[in-house]
Specification:
alpha/beta, binds 6-O-phosphono-alpha-D-glucopyranose, Rossmann fold, six-stranded antiparallel beta sheet, Glutamine Phosphoribosylpyrophosphate, subunit 1, domain 1, 608 residues, globular
């Protein structure tokens, strides 16, 4: 994770670098720093805490510079501290910012120590500055020094370097961590994410693994892994101010919850026609490939994995395909057996999650029929490296806790289930039923959002507890898991999810008046069984908050029965997610936590 940004310009760049860091704080926010070239010296400022503190320091010190690099950190090696904050430097000559992890850092650090370098941080990144200095001191150019350094590094990195001896150029290198160049007006920029510099340009060049590049105010040069000058495609992306501002909302998370009707519309738009899903919406030839799919493997992390768990049920009931699902971080290490004609599906908001990307790269070496990604960022590594893709079109999601990305992933996964069924001539009536229901999803979500008033009544009762239990059955178990994840990540209340039938096999022991139980009880063939499970909670004095269909009757001693809008059963997981998001948000608000940037977390996890 971490966000890096660099600028070479004919104007002062301090402000634009810090503004860029603010936009990348979702990548990490425990410390920040900047190195600005001032011809004879480098202004080097670092602060513990959020970018705002660095900004305050910049306002006080007002360093002027036309060339600089900056960083916002999510600690991996070494605690959050000023010493561990980037940029790191060597001999006050080479200043670097790094995103990624250098796996062989112990060995390289030991070697550099024998060469007389001393370390001032506990990070793996600092050695990059020393290694570059080491090669520069042997008379190599900065570009050659970068190639020589790269030869030594194992791991993932996006690096930007300022050399005090050169006041015109910034050197960049990429391997398995995102890095792009932005073509500005009379300036060239680099960043981990187009969002960081989207106000300055709409033209981006995505560096490839192995690339080394140089930017100056006048231009840029890219060299490939063989040190040959390379040309790379320019990608145009328009990033509106509106998409990355909170508007009338207190937090990005709140804004993103209420954007869901439009976001879902954007996911579906142009992909359904008449009463069926359109052909080849996952890329040219995808509908033909789908004819041969016999098995599905899903890999993802966090919230995206929960979307995959819901979809596994749809692949079975709509597309009649068996699905195996793995945490991306576990998948490669279980020696997966790949049956013939298996489709690998990755799901990711960012498209840059290191474990998911590593799983895709691993899978590409296996005998999968094809690879497909469900992703929110069209320019991401997952999108570029998968055979087929569909973009959720949710717009930038800034809050660390995923909301609209999840529900749009579900909508895209439903389109996939329908496409697989269509290619295999299955369930035409069911497809028509689901498509009809999908068209009214944005309105149903709009109606569901009105549940906020009821949530405001129950939020204070949950905000003063230390634990919570979420229950669901079948396709609602992953939604219960997602609800528990939302609550724990932003309110820091310990929350767990269980399939309601499992309650009596252990968790029932935890039930007392201090354990709120949040249950999802839509109308379904197992609704009665679920109600019996909830009676078990009631009988033991537990407080129940039940989101339910009006047709389900329950007499609660304490807590609340909350009626949910009607919707086709197959799409209810999307609808039942909404109140859980609002509940977590309102509880976190009452507890006064940092909702958009919860402690210890980051949005884009680009380390394994
Ligand atoms: C982080 C985020 C989660 C997200 C997960 C996977 O943990 O905080 O919100 O679900 O990464 O991210 P991805 O971008 O692959 O969906």
């Amino acid at each position: 994770m971490c966000g890096i940004i660099a600028a070479a310009s004919n104007r002062n760049v301090g402000k634009l670098l810090v503004q860029g860091l603010h936009k990348m704080e979702y990548r990490g926010y425990d410390s920040a720093g900047i190195a600005l070239h001032q011809n004879k010296q480098i202004a080097h400022l670092r602060t513990l805490g959020k970018v705002k503190l660095l900004e305050d320091k910049m306002i006080q010190e007002k360093p002027k510079s036309k060339l600089g690099i900056a960083h916002t950190r999510w600690a991996t090696h070494g605690e959050p501290s000023e010493e561990n904050a980037h940029p790191h430097q060597s001999k006050d000559r080479v200043y670097i910012v790094h995103n990624g992890i250098i796996e062989n850092y112990i060995e390289l650090k030991d070697y550099l120590k024998t060469e007389g370098y001393s370390f001032t941080s506990q990070t793996d990144s600092e050695l990059i500055a020393h290694m570059l200095d080491f090669f520069l001191s042997k008379g190599n150019s900065i570009i050659d020094s970068m190639y020589l350094t790269k030869e030594k590094l194992d791991g993932a990195y996006a690096i930007a370097v300022v050399d005090k001896e050169d006041n015109s150029n910034i050197v960049l290198a990429r391997n398995k961590s995102p890095l792009l160049i932005g073509i500005g007006t009379d300036e060239f920029l680099a960043a981990s994410d187009p969002l960081a510099i989207g106000q300055l340009t709409n033209e981006f060049i995505f560096l490839e693994d192995g690339d080394v590049a140089q930017i100056s105010a006048e231009g840029f040069t890219i060299y490939d892994s063989n040190k040959k000058e390379a040309s790379r495609e320019i990608t145009k992306i328009d990033i509106s101010d509106q998409a990355i501002s909170k508007g009338k909302f207190k937090h990005f998370m709140e804004k993103e919850i209420y954007e869901q009707p439009q976001a879902i519309l954007n996911t579906i738009d142009g992909r359904v026609g008449g009463d069926d899903v359109l052909d080849n919406i996952f890329g040219l030839g995808s509908s033909d490939i789908f004819k041969n799919v016999k098995r599905i493997q899903v890999v993802a992390c966090g919230t995206s994995l929960h979307a995959g768990r819901v979809a596994a049920n749809w692949f079975s009931s709509i597309s009649e395909l068996p699905t195996q699902i793995d945490y991306a971080s576990e998948y490669r290490y279980r020696n997966p057996h790949v049956d013939e004609d298996s489709l690998l599906i990755t799901i990711s908001q960012s498209g840059e999650t290191a474990d998911t990307l590593a799983a895709l790269r691993y899978a590409k070496e296996k005998n999968y029929l094809s690879t497909l990604t469900i992703c929110n960022v069209p320019t991401s590594s997952l999108a570029r490296e998968s055979d087929y893709s569909i973009f959720t079109n949710a717009g930038p999601e800034i809050g660390v806790a995923s909301t609209k990305a999840f529900t749009t992933q579900l909508a895209a996964l439903m389109l996939l289930a329908l496409s697989l069924a269509k290619s295999r001539n299955m369930n035409p009536k069911l497809r028509t039923r689901v498509i009809t229901a999908m068209r009214s999803l944005p309105d149903t979500i709009e109606e569901t959002l009105k549940i906020k008033d009821t949530i405001l009544e129950i939020a204070p009762e949950i905000a003063n507890k230390d634990n919570a239990l979420f229950l669901g059955r079948g396709i609602f178990y992953p939604i219960a898991k997602e609800g528990a994840l939302k609550l724990k990540e932003i309110s820091y209340i310990h929350a767990e999810a269980y399939p309601a039938g499992e309650l009596k096999h252990g968790p029932l022991a935890l039930i007392d008046e201090n354990m709120p139980v949040i249950a999802l009880a839509p109308e379904s063939e197992i609704a009665e069984k679920l109600v019996s499970n909830l009676e078990e909670v009631k009988a033991r004095g537990g407080t129940l908050y039940v989101f339910s269909d009006p047709s389900i009757s329950m007499d609660l001693k304490s807590g609340k029965l909350i009626n949910m809008p009607k919707c086709d059963f197959l799409l209810t997981p999307i609808i039942y997610t909404i109140p859980l998001q609002i509940l977590s948000y309102e509880v976190a608000l009452l507890r006064g936590t940092d909702i958009d940037q919860p402690r210890n977390l980051a949005k884009s996890v680009t380390v394994e």
